[in-house]
């Protein structure tokens, strides 16, 4: 091994010399075909028992409970290495599976248990051979998500990930797969909210059209059991919220600002109820609450409101330029505050009277700022 760093090729060669094979699997193979640099590279080992693997790689950290999964440094980065496995449903939820990870299980059998065809491809780490038994490459070219098999609905979380993939990749969803997704509604109700917020986090951070995530969930009748606070919105408000979310997503990659755009439609009580049920990231929630409060406050603009709003924004998690970005991206008929803040300066040569003290200074400055904003508004009209 060169410089004591185990490379992928060396890893695969050791496995091959001991009767097994190593494959890249899942999202990293899909991303490579889509021209995306994979964030994570996961491996699947075929034709080997756990005991032999641990002897060959004593530094591998075992982390799987129901089936063999290891963390092993490959190319200097800790990667997940799982043994090829089959699974069948014996109970409810994502934990209700019986798993087999015997050496005779083939890579094709391992791929069969996966959710969609674009995720059911593998690449031999030694030879580069592509294993694509379910036409995943073809579906990538067609920009469609299709269930690998009817077992898609065995795991209710697959429906949520399906909506997330559609939003992140901009792919359509095969009609039969939409029906499979609808079938998981009763089980999805009982899934941990932490898993739902994790998928939402990926969508808000990565999707070019995050509104598609909620629209797919609505189409599959799953929105009411996953994000009921959005499902309860009247149709017009739902469409407005999704349009605003997508517009802001085009303008920024900030998860905080993307989520905050929902505050253009969702009121304080609804956002607070969402957070109570499913703890949201603190900066997301604060920014969304401020967007809702401030944009409503500024619908009828006065110099006093503008000065007070600028003062409040100086103390919160939402900056003036961030609010302006949301206002501009969502095409709201509300004044942006950045130029007005710049106008809040004392006339040249004027300073705070030395006779003022304490609160008097703040009151005097507020009066002067209001006068400056009024002057700026009049010059704009």
TrEMBL record:
Please give the Gene Ontology molecular function terms for this protein: ATP binding; CCA tRNA nucleotidyltransferase activity; metal ion binding; RNA binding
On whether RNA-binding is a keyword of this UniProt record, the answer is yes
- The name under which this protein is listed is tRNA cytidylyltransferase
Every copy of the tRNA nucleotidyltransferase/poly(A) polymerase RNA and SrmB- binding domain together lies at 170-231
Top-level taxon of origin: Bacteria
The protein's UniProt keywords, in alphabetical order, are: ATP-binding, Magnesium, Metal-binding, Nucleotide-binding, Nucleotidyltransferase, RNA repair, RNA-binding, Transferase, tRNA processing
Family in the record: Belongs to the tRNA nucleotidyltransferase/poly(A) polymerase family.
Q: Which Pfam families match?
A: PolyA_pol, PolyA_pol_RNAbd
Query: EC number(s) of the enzyme?
Result: 2.7.7.72
Task: Show the InterPro entries listed in the entry.
Answer: NT_sf, PolA_pol_head_dom, PolyA_RNA-bd, tRNA_CCA-adding_enzyme
């Amino acid at each position: 091994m060169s410089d004591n760093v185990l490379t992928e090729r060396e890893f695969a060669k050791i496995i091959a010399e001991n009767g097994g094979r190593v494959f890249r699997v899942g999202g990293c193979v899909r991303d490579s075909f889509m021209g995306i640099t994979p964030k994570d590279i996961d491996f699947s080992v075929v034709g080997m028992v756990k005991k032999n693997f641990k002897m060959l790689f004593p530094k591998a950290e075992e982390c799987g409970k129901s089936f063999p999964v290891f963390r092993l440094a490959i190319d200097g980065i800790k990667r997940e290495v799982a043994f090829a496995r089959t699974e069948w449903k014996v109970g409810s939820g994502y934990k209700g599976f019986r798993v087999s990870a015997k050496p005779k299980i083939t890579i094709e059998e391992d791929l069969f248990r996966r959710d969609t065809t674009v995720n059911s491809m593998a690449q031999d780490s030694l030879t580069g051979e592509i294993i694509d038994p379910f036409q995943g490459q073809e579906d990538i070219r067609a920009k469609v998500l299709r269930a690998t098999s009817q077992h898609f609905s065995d795991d209710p979380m697959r429906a949520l990930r399906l909506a997330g993939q559609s939003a992140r990749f901009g792919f359509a969803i095969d009609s039969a797969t939409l029906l499979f997704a609808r079938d998981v509604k009763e089980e999805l109700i009982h899934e941990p909210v932490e898993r739902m917020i994790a998928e939402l986090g990926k969508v808000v951070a990565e999707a070019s059209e995050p509104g598609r995530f909620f629209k797919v969930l609505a189409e599959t009748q799953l929105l009411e059991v996953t994000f009921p606070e959005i499902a309860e919105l009247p149709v017009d408000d739902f469409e407005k919220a999704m349009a605003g979310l997508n517009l802001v997503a085009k303008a920024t990659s900030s998860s905080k600002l993307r989520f905050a755009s929902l505050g253009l439609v969702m009121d304080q009580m609804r956002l607070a109820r969402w957070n109570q049920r499913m703890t949201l990231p603190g900066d997301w929630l604060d920014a969304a609450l401020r967007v809702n409060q401030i944009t409503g406050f500024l619908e009828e603009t006065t110099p006093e409101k503008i000065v007070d709003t600028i003062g409040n924004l100086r103390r919160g998690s939402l900056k003036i330029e961030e609010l302006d970005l949301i206002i501009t991206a969502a095409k709201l008929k509300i004044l942006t505050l950045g130029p007005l803040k710049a106008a809040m300066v004392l006339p040249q040569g004027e300073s705070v009277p030395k006779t003022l003290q304490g609160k008097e200074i703040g009151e005097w400055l507020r009066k002067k700022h209001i006068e400056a904003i009024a002057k700026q508004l009049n010059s704009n009209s």
